[in-house]
Amino acid sequence: LQETLVQEGLGGAKQNREPVFFTIGSIDSFERKLQTLRDSLDLGDDVPPVTYTREGGFFSIFMSFAPTLLLIGFFALVMRNAAGGGASGGIFGITNSRAKKYTELNRVKITFKDVAGMAEAKQEVMEFVSFLRNPSRFTDLGAKIPKGAILLGPPGTGKTLLAKAVAGECKVPFYSISGSDFMEMFVGVGPARVRDLFSKARENRPCIVYIDEIDAIGKPRGKGGFFGGNDERENTLNQLLIELDGFNVLSDVVVLASTNVGVDNLDKALMRPGRFDRQIMVDLPNIQEREEIFHVHLRPVKMAHDSASFIAKKLAQQTPGFSGADIANVCNEGALIAARRDAKEVTLVDFEAAVDRVIGGLEKKTRVLRPEEKRVVAFHEAGHAITSWFLQHCHPLVKVSIIPRGSAALGYAQYLPSEKKIRTVDELMDTICMALGGRAAERLTFNHLSTGAQDDLQRVTRMAYAQVTKYGFSEKLLNLAFPEQGNSSEGLTRRLYSDSTALVVD
Ligand code: ADP
Ligand code: MG
Ligand code: ZN
User: Fold this and answer.
1) Which ligand has an atom closest to residue 330 CA?
2) Ligand nearest to the Cα of 454, by number
3) What is the rounded average pLDDT of the residues 372-388?
4) Are 196 and 95 in contact (CB under 8 A)?
5) 115 lines ligand 1 (CB under 6 A)
6) 122 lines ligand 1 (CB under 6 A)
7) What atom of ligand 1 comes closest to residue 155's alpha carbon?
8) Most buried residue, 307, 331, 365, 375, by most Cβ within 10 Å?
9) How far away, in angstroms, is 155 Cα from ligand 3 center?
10) What mean pLDDT, rounded, does the chain reach?
11) Is 329 in the pocket of ligand 1 (CB under 6 A)?
């Protein structure tokens, strides 16, 4: 600017007075600069005249329309995509179900051999396969082929895996879809997809349809409360119910489903006979099943010759409460740990480190405990260990660790949970003693109280209250069980007994 002004003002401008054009940001600051320039150059009256023109006109008009145009453009895009149609989806394709079809040609590679344990679930599911392969054996006797089965169990217990094995082994087409695949942001798509899935299935019968994580659509209906419920989901569920047991149902389409949530959290109508006739429970594996699962997952791992069965047995003992997925994780982590130390083979030590890691998370090398603290933690955990060792009704102790890890801040003790479902007063009392053993040991050894026992105390309090309010063990409130207090997410906790009873409970 300065240069041009100087040139124009002192030289060129005098001769041919050609106008100079600028694009400027702010008029104010431009004029201020111009003024200082004029003053400093001392041009007097001989200054080039400045004329402003405003050219933003069209642009600013355009800008004021921009949001509208953007919206129109967006809708145009959506509509074009939607109408673009054909096989790639679109408004006509959106109702196509997203089910994956497995036939003889593209079988999954998983077989029943890859599914360890779960003997009963496997047998039930295999029965369905044999129904479809050879229906006359059953229909000749006047039996109807069951419509479907639902696999229920905690996460990672191998429900999806079992279904995959069915897909791999059965000789009929297998459709796999997940519950959430039915839902879309457009209304009416869910039911249409259900219809589409089942019409495809009927064309290809006999066949198996598998719906994973069915709770996405199978939650009980009519529980929307103030928010009006979820009509789309309910309509989808209704359509599914109709396809399972409506007018045009053919018997040789078998529907399998799986979910992590309990039966109570699924719509009753889904579970009635004629729909998912069979409920197959898949529990966490017991010790033998864990050993079998270890065998499956140790197969690809390179280990010292014939140590596999020993390792599998040993690890099965050390991993109570693990699911199949946890076990798969342990095997993989073990191999990774061995690889990190450049080993040729994976050993038991690696797997044991992996078990610790799966239970407690990563070892916190940086979070170093001071030696005094370490001593306190060691005595605390030893207190738990010793009490549980000597108390008759406690769960046996498997392992104590005082290495700080991700989730176990100071250390942890791992117990072997019993397979028993009923627990007696003695067992609960012994468990309370054992939980207090850590604090007792601290007091005996260091004669102090510490905050390290907070978790234990919470557990003890909860167990003690449960004995009175849930199990009716207390002499004063014998044979009474009070419902759980209302959950605090509702903002209020209800207590279904009087203040005087509360005093007795306390
Ligand atoms: P979910 O029950 O939650 O559907 P998955 O079937 O997805 O669990 O299991 C996750 C992984 O855990 C599987 O891919 C497999 O590696 C392992 N797994 C679980 N159960 C078993 C089992 N019984 N035998 C072998 N592997 C198992
Ligand atoms: Mg699953
Ligand atoms: Zn403790």
Assistant:
1) 1
2) 3
3) 89
4) yes
5) yes
6) no
7) 3
8) 331
9) 28
10) 80
11) no
234, two tokens: 């309910």
Which of 73-87, 255-269, 301-315 has the lowest average pLDDT? 73-87
CA 191, CA 2: separation in Å to the nearest integer?
A: 72
pLDDT digits 0-9 by tens, 231-247: 778 888 888 888 887 66
Best mutation site among 120, 152, 157 for ligand 1 pocket (most ligand atoms within 8 Å of CB): 157
Rg value, the chain, Cα: 36
Which residues pair with residue 401 across a beta bridge? 412
- Residues in CB range of 35: below 8 A, 6 or more apart: none
Q: Catalytic site residue 381?
A: yes
Q: Which two tokens stand for residue 254?
A: 């078998």
Measured CA distances, 64 to 19, 60, 150 (Å): 32, 6, 57
- Whether the per-residue pLDDT at 267 is higher than 80: the answer is yes
User: Rounded to an integer, what distance in angstroms lies between the CA atom of residue 257 and that of residue 212?
Assistant: 6
The stretches of 204-307 forming alpha helices (DSSP H) are: 215-218, 231-245, 268-271, 287-298
The angle at the Cα of 285, spanning 282 to 291, to the nearest 5 degrees, equals 140
pTM, full prediction = 0.69
Query: Nearest C-alpha to atom 1 of ligand 1 is from which residue?
Result: 156
Q: Ligand 1: which atom is nearest the Cα of residue 325?
A: 12
Helix (H), strand (E) at residue 398? strand 397-401
* 323 pLDDT above the threshold of 80: yes
Burial code (b: 16+ CB inside 10 Å, e: under 16) for 305-343 equals eeeeeebbebbbebbbebbbbbbbbbbebbbebbeeeee
Express each pLDDT in 31-86 by its tens digit. Answer: 888 888 888 877 666 766 777 766 666 677 777 778 888 888 888 877 766 554 44
Q: What percent of the chain has pLDDT over 90?
A: 11
Element (H, E) at 279: strand 278-281
